[in-house]
Structure formats: C-alpha cells, structure tokens
C-alpha cells in the first residue's frame, strides 16, 4: 500500500494558530499521542521560538479510516511556540536523539497581561514548561499523511 495524500480525500493539511487559551484545547486534542525524539525539539532564545517536529496521529481522520476500512494515519507536523521567554524541562532531556517521547497534551496557566505558561505533558511524567509573553502557537502539517506504523489508534487503557 502506498502512502496517502491529502489530495486523495476532501481534507487539507492542518494549519492552525492559537492566540488564546480556548484555541489551545483544539491543538492539544490534535497533537495527543504525537511521537518525537528529543532531537526533534529546538529552542532559540534569540528568536524567542520553541519548536517540535512531531509525528502526529490524524485524529481528525480516524472515523473516516474506520468507515472506509483503511489504515489509520500519521503525518509529520511542526508545533511552533513563538514569543517564548523561558523553557524548563523535567523528566526529559531535549536534544536526546535516542529517546522517543509521546506528547499527551498541552496545558495552559494564565499570567498577567496575556502572558502564560504552556506546559507540554509527555508520557512517563515528562514535561516542558514554556513561559510566553502571549499565546502564539502554530500547528502545521508538513508532509503527506502516511500509514501509522502500528496500524492502530492510540489507546490509554
């Protein structure tokens, strides 16, 4: 079986921007169970940008895959947090290329004058907290979808 393409269906690549806390809920749901390595994480203090290259499970396609009796899919995507002021990690080491991480959610804690702390929660009690001047997060698919290697929908049983 060949990889799928966005052109095969009516769907387009995901390209979303979060500018407020409610927007983060949608993006958090779409990145749930994304996998990456520590080497897929970058932090540029000079650019005030924190970014992850993730293998995102296509939750938005799960029901269509079941209806059409075809494999579920993943897609490579960029999760970029701009206006980042500081980054703290606990339980994981960004940059470790041999460690596979599973992103579970993005949490938000509001601060003063629109500032916030965005916390990326990973399986195994790891987390990365990013202090931001304002919520400015982008999720963008950067490849065509591909068959999920496991062939299964992620489960938390």
UniProtKB/TrEMBL annotation:
<dbReference type="Pfam" id="PF11164">
    <property type="entry name" value="DUF2948"/>
</dbReference>
<protein>
    <recommendedName>
        <fullName>DUF2948 family protein</fullName>
    </recommendedName>
</protein>
<dbReference type="InterPro" id="IPR021335">
    <property type="entry name" value="DUF2948"/>
</dbReference>
